[in-house]
Structure formats: structure tokens, C-alpha cells
């Protein structure tokens, strides 16, 4: 901050249940650190989800793009990692398996839909028949990473007991029955 210190008055106003205004006094700003915007991380991705087509073995990941600094601009790139151990993914993201195709994603402005479709056998060969977990982190132009996204649980193969649970795998519904969609919060996983 350049120039002499400035005084600011503070007023507090309650909007509910009654309408009152009270003076909270004043404060003086004497110095302000210059903020290096590049140190601000991208916002956390909160809507990461996956759809699996068990017939083709393709995995489609989707989320909303975030900014380079919080929600401003466009993140430079996205890192997507996979692990059969959810705790490892959450606690040591860097050591989880890299979904390398994410490096090819374009940088788009914050708030735009992002989609990445990969052949699971090529990108995730270690997970043919187990439930595994995926998450994404955005990276800004200064190399600052966002917080870990919500975690998506994925299984590439269909359960053996589809007839028992009433899923028709033949006829007109075969396409919809061979796809499963998964999204989850950082606290719990749900599949639809």
C-alpha cells in the first residue's frame, strides 16, 4: 500500500430477527503485503465423476473446469490419479497411478465442462476387476496445486449377480445396463 495510513469506519448491521445498526469503531491500515496472485491455488474440483462402458472398456471422466488462481482464468493443467486404496489417493496423491491422458487436456476458462475419455486397459491396466478410486487436482501456471477433488469409485467389470438384482442385460436395455456412473463426495462414495 502506498501513501499515508488510512482510517476506515466499521458498521455492523443485523438483518434478522431485528434491524439494528451499531458502530464497531474504526481501524487503521498501515501496510498491505503485495499479493503474488500466482501463489493462489486453483479452486478445488467438487463435481468429479466417472462413467464406465463395460462393453467397450472406456472410462469417461467429467468435471467443471477451475481457474488458474481460484476461479479466475483457466487452470494450466489437470492431474488425475488412480488407486485401489482410497486412503493412499487422499493422503499421498503424488504416489498414486497417473492417468497420463490428462496431460493432453486443453486449458479452458473456469466454469466450463471438462471431459476425458480413456481406454481403461491402456490407462489403467492395474485395475481390471477391482474397485478403484480416481481424483483430480488442478495445477496453475506457477505449479501450485488445488486441493484434492471429490473421489470417484469405479469398477470396470459388471457384477456376476445382475439377474439376481433384476438388471436386464439383453434386448433394448443392453447399452444402458453396461454403463455405470459414479460420483462421490470426499466423505463417501455413491454409485448410481
Automatic annotation (TrEMBL):
Biased composition (Low complexity): 172-192
Annotated segments matching region Disordered: 167-192
Name of the molecule in the record: Fibronectin type-III domain-containing protein
Amino acid at each position: 500500500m502506498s501513501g499515508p495510513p488510512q482510517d476506515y469506519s466499521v458498521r455492523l448491521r443485523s438483518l434478522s430477527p431485528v434491524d439494528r445498526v451499531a458502530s464497531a469503531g474504526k481501524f487503521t491500515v498501515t501496510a498491505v503485503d503485495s499479493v503474488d496472485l500466482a501463489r493462489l491455488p486453483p479452486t478445488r474440483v467438487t463435481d468429479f465423476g466417472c462413467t464406465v462402458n463395460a462393453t467397450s472398456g472406456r472410462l469417461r471422466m467429467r468435471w467443471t473446469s477451475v481457474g488458474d488462481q481460484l476461479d479466475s482464468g483457466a487452470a494450466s493443467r489437470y492431474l488425475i490419479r488412480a488407486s485401489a486404496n482410497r486412503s493412499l489417493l487422499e493422503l499421498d496423491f503424488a504416489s498414486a497411478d497417473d492417468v497420463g491422458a490428462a496431460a493432453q487436456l486443453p486449458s479452458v476458462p473456469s466454469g466450463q465442462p471438462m471431459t476425458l475419455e480413456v481406454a481403461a486397459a491402456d490407462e489403467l491396466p492395474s485395475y481390471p476387476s477391482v474397485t478403484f478410486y480416481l481424483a483430480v487436482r488442478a495445477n496453475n501456471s506457477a505449479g501450485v496445486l488445488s486441493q484434492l477433488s471429490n473421489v470417484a469409485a469405479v469398477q470396470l467389470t459388471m457384477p456376476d449377480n445382475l439377474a439376481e438384482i433384476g438388471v436386464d442385460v439383453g434386448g433394448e436395455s443392453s447399452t444402458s445396463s453396461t454403463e455405470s456412473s459414479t460420483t462421490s463426495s470426499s466423505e463417501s462414495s455413491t454409485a448410481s
